[in-house]
């Protein structure tokens, strides 16, 4: 598919998806969201991709949902637009392949929500985060009210959402919203280094671990432990498990093939 608002490139088994609507600060309208959904589906089913990095073109990661498109919407139309964003972000969140957000600039509203649905977040020192929707007379609509409390705690999430405050990358790291903050010129190198460290391991094990964490986090401890046990057992049906343990015993470097 030819994308109008997305750029795609691949380095070895790592795909970089870049939102490319810089004049609008990569704002998310329906067209961008639908392109993102299609791109995520293609990456999820691409056997040559193990890790995905999402970033933005220009000075913004994503400055938010497109206010021009939202402004005339009625209640039902607003719900449909919100559901579209929720659906796309949920697909990213449920991917077995790890997804890293490389937050290069503004990550506000829908941009913060996009970053939060990724597995990990690396931020530039110039990045800024926030859910300022109440200042526009709405609430976060792409699952921000659900993911932000899970990442930073209920009280801090309510503070950020109720005030609409925008915070710098360093504060975002302090409260656990991002994994690491780096100089702007080092952002993609840092994200790529993290992706490579993940990609060198047994990929079925990485994906099973991701599934265990995501599914377990949304249930009770007993159910989560059972999910882990089942996925742990499935690892022993893979060739990579045999290779990894044999290589350890033989004191050599494992050569994983994702099988």
Features:
259 residues, alpha/beta, six-stranded mixed beta sheet, 11 helices, globular
Short description:
The protein is an alpha/beta fold and 259 residues long. 48% of the residues lie in helices and 17% in strands.
Question: What does this entry look like structurally?
Answer:
This protein is of the alpha/beta class and 259 residues long. The longest helix has 19 residues. It has 11 helices and 10 strands. The strands form 2 sheets. Strands 1-2-3-5-7-10 form a 6-stranded mixed sheet, with helices on both faces. The protein has a 4-stranded mixed sheet with strand order 4-6-8-9. The mean pLDDT is 97.
Ordered list of secondary-structure elements with their pairings:
Blueprint: E1 6-11, E2 14-19, H1 30-45, E3 51-56, E4 60-62, H2 67-70, H3 75-93, E5 99-103, E6 106-108, H4 110-116, E7 120-124, E8 128-130, H5 144-152, H6 154-163, E9 166-168, H7 169-174, E10 180-182, H8 187-199, H9 203-217, H10 221-235, H11 239-249
Parallel strand pairs: 2-3, 3-5, 4-6, 5-7, 6-8, 7-10
Antiparallel strand pairs: 1-2, 8-9
């Amino acid at each position: 598919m030819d994308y109008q608002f997305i750029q795609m490139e691949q380095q070895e088994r790592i795909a970089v998806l870049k939102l490319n609507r810089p004049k609008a600060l990569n704002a998310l309208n329906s067209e961008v969201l639908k392109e993102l959904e299609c791109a995520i589906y293609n990456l999820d089913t691409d056997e040559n991709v193990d890790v995905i990095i999402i970033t933005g073109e220009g000075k913004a990661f994503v400055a938010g949902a497109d206010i021009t498109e939202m402004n005339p919407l009625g209640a039902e139309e607003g719900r449909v637009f919100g559901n579209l964003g929720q659906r796309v972000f949920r697909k990213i969140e449920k991917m077995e392949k790890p997804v890293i957000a490389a937050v290069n600039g503004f990550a506000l509203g829908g941009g913060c929500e996009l970053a939060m649905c990724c597995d990990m977040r690396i931020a530039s020192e110039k990045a800024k985060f926030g859910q300022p929707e109440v200042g526009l007379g709405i609430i976060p609509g792409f699952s921000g009210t659900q993911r932000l409390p899970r990442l930073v705690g209920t009280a801090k999430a309510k503070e950020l959402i109720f005030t609409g405050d925008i915070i710098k990358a360093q504060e975002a790291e302090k409260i656990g919203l991002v994994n690491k903050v780096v100089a702007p010129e080092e952002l993609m190198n840092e994200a790529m280094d993290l992706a490579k460290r993940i990609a060198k391991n047994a990929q079925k094990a990485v994906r099973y671990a991701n599934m265990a964490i995501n599914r377990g986090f949304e249930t009770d401890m007993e159910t989560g432990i059972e999910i882990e046990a089942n996925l742990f057992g499935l690892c022993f049906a893979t060739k990579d498990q045999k290779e990894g343990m044999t290589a350890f015993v033989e004191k050599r470097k494992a050569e994983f093939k994702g099988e």
